[in-house]
Design a protein that fits this description.
The structure holds two protein chains of two kinds.
Chain A: E1 2-6, H1 34-53, E2 57-60, H2 74-84, E3 90-95, H3 103-116, E4 121-125, H4 133-136, H5 143-159, E5 165-168, E6 173-177, E7 191-194, H6 198-207, E8 210-214, H7 219-234, E9 241-242, E10 246-254, H8 258-268, H9 270-273, H10 279-282, H11 290-297, H12 314-320, E11 323-326, H13 328-342, E12 347-351, H14 359-380, E13 386-387
Parallel strand pairs in A: 1-2, 1-12, 2-3, 3-4, 4-7, 7-8, 8-10, 10-11, 10-12
Antiparallel strand pairs in A: 5-6, 9-13
Chain B: E1 2-8, E2 11-18, E3 23-27, H1 40-44, E4 48-52, H2 69-82, E5 88-93, H3 95-106, E6 111-117, H4 140-147, H5 151-154, H6 163-180, E7 201-206, H7 214-222, E8 227-232, H8 239-242, H9 244-256
Parallel strand pairs in B: 3-4, 3-5, 5-6, 6-7, 7-8
Antiparallel strand pairs in B: 1-2, 2-4
Helix pairs in contact in B: 2-3
């Protein structure tokens, strides 16, 4: 089991939520004070480096036009971390390649970071949440198709050694691709892809990339992992899916005692409760399939924005499997319960900082996890563990 | 009255026809076409009314290669070939007007007379302001105020629609986004091409249209050498829903009586 400290580098100093319609896309940036922002960057980078000192890996992601995540050019932050850190793996999860016009440029950025960090890059790729559409001026229709063409082109760009090659595809066109530098890791850095749907997970499984899913709780995560393992097996990768192919991101806060843990967990909920986004940003036309939109009219919940509703309390979030919080023993038990329910995973993405969780409390959470919980998780779930061990041997045939 | 499927460029196009007389092609707007709409009987009473559902709208197919209004203009020129129409009158509503304008720029001889109803498709204003407001970036109620003269009356209770109707509505919306997203609601080249479209043209808008302004309509009309404008009261952007009879009257009068 590997654990990752994930910070969204949030900017929490906002006016009352009822004074603005959306924390994303349209919140005027006059609210952002660059001086305070600079101090926050310093602090968040320190926290990543403390996590590294504690043996935890480093993870970051990218969002645009939002106070929830002030990291619109995540490769820049990753480049800084590549020089400031020494040993941690560096996961960007991820590059929103359906929203980026030049996949080859993304391949160049990632190759540079791999070289700068002496081979510590873990390169993640995401479709991106719906509120990324407007900031990117990206067409919400056919994102998935763009995503996969871009990812395949990036892999080819990383691995091609023999001078310029061309690509005339459906969405991207290049006459002479020949990047310098190329990555250190061979044949290329590990690839991660996030998804919230079983259909997407089967595709990721077929490729054998690491599948990450965020705040999908018990049953949805289980379905996604099952789909991943099915895709993996049907692509002929063998019956056994190593747990390191599967990642789960949860809000996690471990405190030395219940009172401190509860206080930290309450502050972590900012992730969920601050995410005020109106429907026209949360569901642009074409982002969700037609059938999913029909189901929304019939009363279904929008998976992408649902976690603001029923999981707005610490107890509710723990029950839903989107948060693990408490003393070391309590958190270990919560993770074990979730791990067993979904069939097992080998990457734990710790959303361990949010909003007003101050530096000292953030560090306390990181350290308590790293010292009291992480060693037990590593012992319980060594990297050689097989995911989905409860499934019948002939699952691929069914 | 009949609906048939005609295969053009590998696409199964749903084509509605009603009435007899000189051919009139109706190119629908972003909400698609419903044969029960009230403008149909008055037009079909005097004309052979032909209404294709654009690729990706209604029951028409959407191939993976199609992603622009220009693509549809090419397909409809071929549809005219298939229907053996050397020339026809056209009514284009909203993005249907955009399609008609692309066709008029390519093959002006195939459009006898052209009616543009709340048309989009050109950029006439300054770079720092959208010519057409971004209806996808605002609450539905705000969009309705721009679309309709009387939003309360035009409000649709989604819960009462069948799954089939809802699916068509969401699919139409998705295809609309595919076609108009970037550049938003226009082809930057189109205004440099319309001077060849010398057929008589009538540009119509509803007085309360919050998407297509009077200035936009006037500037668009000026790009065609033989055009004029008309405003219909008590209507917004979707004239055929709010003022079907007045729109049908204006269309027929222009097609039949205007010099």
């Amino acid at each position: 089991m590997r654990a990752w400290h994930f910070s969204e580098t949030a900017y929490p100093y906002l006016p009352p939520a009822d004074s603005y319609p959306s924390i994303r896309v349209s919140l005027p940036n006059r609210i952002y004070d660059p001086q305070k922002g600079a101090a926050l960057y310093d602090r968040y980078i320190d926290e990543w480096l403390i996590a590294e000192d504690e043996g935890v890996e480093i993870m970051l992601n990218e969002h645009h036009q939002t106070a929830t995540c002030v990291d619109p050019a995540a490769p820049l932050m990753l480049a800084a971390l590549a020089r400031l850190s020494k040993k941690a793996r560096l996961l960007i999860l991820g590059n929103p390649i359906a929203n980026r016009r030049q996949p080859v440029r993304v391949a160049e950025e990632m190759a540079m970071i791999d070289v700068l960090s002496h081979g510590r890059l873990e390169a993640g790729f995401v479709r991106g949440v719906p509120y990324e559409i407007l900031p990117a001026n990206s067409n919400p229709v056919r994102m998935n198709e763009r995503h996969w063409e871009a990812l395949d082109l990036i892999v080819k760009t990383w691995t091609h050694r023999d001078g310029p090659f061309s690509h005339e595809g459906r969405f991207f066109h290049h006459r002479a691709i020949n990047i310098w530098p190329r990555p250190i890791q061979q044949p290329h850095p590990p690839i991660w892809v996030s998804t919230t749907s079983p259909g997407g997970a089967a595709q990721v499984g077929a490729k054998g990339y690491v599948q990450a899913t965020f705040l999908t709780g018990f049953d949805t995560t289980k379905r996604i992992y099952e789909a991943y393992r099915r895709g993996w097996r049907e692509a002929g990768r063998g019956q056994d899916v190593p747990i390191d192919r599967l990642a789960y991101a949860a809000l996690i806060y471990v405190g030395e005692n219940e009172a401190r843990a509860r206080a930290g967990a309450e502050k972590l909920l900012w992730y969920v409760t601050s995410n005020k986004v109106p429907p026209h940003f949360a569901n642009p036309p074409g982002y969700l399939p037609v059938a999913a939109n029909v189901q929304l009219v019939r009363g279904a919940q929008n998976v992408v924005s649902a976690y603001g509703t029923k999981q707005g309390t610490v107890d509710g979030a723990i029950e839903a499997g989107t948060m693990f919080a408490g003393t070391p023993d309590q958190v270990l038990k919560q993770i074990q319960k979730h791990w067993n329910h979904v069939g097992g995973y080998g990457q734990l993405l710790i959303m361990g900082q949010a909003g007003f969780l101050e530096h000292d409390d953030t560090v306390h959470g990181i350290r308590t996890f790293a010292r009291e919980v992480y060693p037990q998780l590593k012992a319980l779930y060594p990297d050689t563990t097989i995911s989905g061990f409860t499934e019948p041997a002939n699952a691929a045939a069914s | 009255m009949k609906t048939t499927t005609i295969k053009i460029a590998g696409i199964d196009l749903e084509v509605f026809e009603a009435g007899e007389g000189p051919p009139l092609l109706w190119l629908h707007g972003g909400q698609g076409f419903n044969p029960k709409e009230e403008f149909v009987p008055p037009l079909a009473a005097r004309r052979r009314l032909i209404v294709p559902s654009h690729p990706g709208f209604g029951r028409s197919g959407l191939p993976e290669w199609l992603d622009s209004v220009d693509d549809i203009a090419h397909i409809y020129l071929e549809l005219m070939d298939r229907l053996e129409l050397d020339a026809a009158d056209f009514v284009g509503c909203s993005i249907g007007g955009w399609i008609a304008a692309e066709m008029a720029a390519k093959s002006p001889e195939r459009i006898r007379r052209l009616v543009m109803v709340g048309p989009v498709g050109v950029k006439v204003g300054s770079a720092d302001k959208l010519d057409i407001p971004d209806i996808f970036a605002m609450p539905q109620d705000d969009a309705s105020k721009l679309l309709y003269h009387d939003p309360a009356k035009m409000k649709v209770d989604l819960a009462k629609l069948t799954d089939d109707e809802l699916s068509t509505m969401f699919r139409n919306r998705e295809t609309l986004a595919l076609l108009v997203w970037e550049p938003w609601m226009h082809n930057p080249k189109l205004k440099r091409r319309l001077h060849r479209a010398a057929m008589p043209a009538l540009f119509v808008r509803g007085e309360s249209d919050g998407l297509v302004s009077a200035d936009y309509l006037a500037a668009y009309a000026k790009l065609l050498p033989n055009s004029r404008t008309l405003t219909i009261t008590a209507a917004g952007h979707v004239l055929h829903l709010e003022q079907p009879q007045a729109l049908a009257n204006a269309v027929l009068e222009f097609l039949e009586k205007a010099p």
